[in-house]
Design goal:
- This protein has 258 residues and is mainly α.
- Helix content is 86%, strand content 0%.
- α4 runs antiparallel to α10.
- The longest helix is centred in the middle third of the chain and has 39 residues.
- The chain is elongated, with a radius of gyration of 21 Å.
- It starts with a helix and ends with a helix.
Length: 258
């Protein structure tokens, strides 16, 4: 058992320099993306279509249902102890700052991380990556950079819609259970949303998007020759993305509370 753990730890540190170099190469390729031809921009548009547009209905329904349920349960409990005014701060804290970015990241991981890893893995096994290199095209600049931008921007916009729908969705519910009604709900809610909460939510969405896109493309390129490695790459992309998101969220929470 100890031997197996030692092997896993040593293999991780052996691959760490390669991973850091890969991350640096992705950032360098992304900075010059806008100067490239239209073909690379088409990859970005398709990634935005799949990750943002097609996932938007899921996120809207999820956020509205989640916000409404939290408002109904939280308002009833806080009203029983005479602290119903705290529900507005609780909603802005959980939906916009904490759970919102994480839930959006989980949706993107479930839909896009597997798709990106398996797509790139299939391109490796079918020797398409070798064809790009033979033609003098950098696969990271052409394939990874647009996906990196597409997933990161999609995560940001999906998180924005999640916050809006999750916070404004309960306004209809408040018409029936709150004496202040919808107008009073919106007024009290705006008082609790701070600039720090908005900035933290935006920062999380950008960081989570970078983590998911880098991990998905990294494991997609790690496929070697056998087609049986493609589903394994998809599973690794999902599992490692979940771990990366949770660790990043913990670090951001700790740093923001210092």
């Amino acid at each position: 058992m100890l031997k197996k753990i030692g092997f896993l730890v040593s293999s991780y540190f052996v691959s760490l320099p390669y991973l850091l170099g890969y991350i640096g190469k992705v950032f360098v390729g992304t900075t010059g993306f806008l100067k490239r031809e239209k073909a690379a921009r088409k990859v970005l548009v398709m990634q935005l279509l799949f990750t943002f547009i097609e996932a938007l209905p899921i996120v809207v329904v999820l956020s509205a249902a989640f916000g409404s349920a939290m408002f109904i349960i939280g308002y009833s409990f806080l009203q029983s102890i005479g602290q119903e005014s705290l529900i507005y701060g609780l909603l802005s804290l959980l939906i916009m700052r904490e759970l919102g970015p994480v839930l959006v990241a989980f949706v993107v991981i479930a839909r896009s991380a597997t798709a990106i890893a398996t797509e790139l893995g299939g391109m490796v096994t079918s020797h398409q990556i070798e064809s790009y290199v033979a033609c003098g095209i950098d696969p990271i600049d052409y394939l990874v950079a647009p996906r990196f931008l597409g997933v990161t921007l999609s995560m940001f916009f999906l998180n924005l819609y999640f916050s809006l729908c999750g916070l404004l969705g309960p306004a209809l519910i408040s018409q029936f259970i709150s004496p202040l009604g919808s107008a009073g709900y919106v007024t009290n809610l705006l008082k609790t949303v701070s600039a720090f909460t908005i900035i933290t939510s935006m920062l999380k969405s950008f960081i989570f998007g970078m983590i998911v896109s880098i991990i998905a493309t990294y494991y997609g390129f790690n496929v070697e020759r056998a087609s049986t490695e493609i589903p394994v790459a998809g599973i690794q992309a999902v599992s490692k993305s979940f771990v990366g998101i949770i660790l990043a969220d913990v670090v951001i929470i700790v740093l923001s509370s210092m």
